[in-house]
Amino acid sequence: MNRAQAHKLWFDTLALGLDLEVSALGRMWQEAGLGGEETAALGVALEQPDRGEARRRLIRKTREVLLEQGWDPDLISTPAAPMRGL
C-alpha cells in the first residue's frame, strides 16, 4: 500500500454512509492493495446488525489496518502531510 492508496482508503471509508455494500467495499479494499487477511478483518466489522455501529466499527478497523501498514490516518489526513513526505 502506497500513500495514495492509504489516503484514498481512509477518506473513502470516512465518506461511507450507512449503505455498506460489501461489493463496493471489496473494490475499495482491492484498490488499496489489501490482502485477504486485512479484508477479512474489515469484513468482520460489518457483522454488527446496527448499520451505524457497523460503520463506526469499520472506521476503527480501517484505522488499525492503516496503522499496521505503516500509515497514520491522522497524518495522512492533514494538508501538510505530503510536504513531510508522509
Any overview of this molecule?
With about 90 residues, the chain is mainly α. It has 5 helices and no strands. The chain has helices at about 5-15, 20-30, 35-45, 50-70, 75. α3 packs antiparallel against α4. It is globular, with a radius of gyration of 13 Å.
- Low-confidence blocks of residues: none
Helix share, percent = 55-70%
Q: Whole-number average pLDDT?
A: 85
Give the helices and strands as they follow along the chain: HHHHH
- If helices are DSSP runs of H or I spanning 4 or more residues, what is the number of helices? 5
Strand content: under 5%
| Global Rg | 13 Å
By secondary-structure content and strand pairing, the structural class works out as mainly alpha
End-to-end gap: 13 Å
Number of strands: 0
Oligomer: single chain
Broad shape: globular
Largest sheet: none
Give a summary of the structure in a few sentences.
The chain is built from 5 helices and no strands.
Secondary structure blueprint with pairings:
Layout: H1 3-15, H2 22-31, H3 36-44, H4 51-68, H5 73-76
Helix pairs in contact: 1-4, 3-4
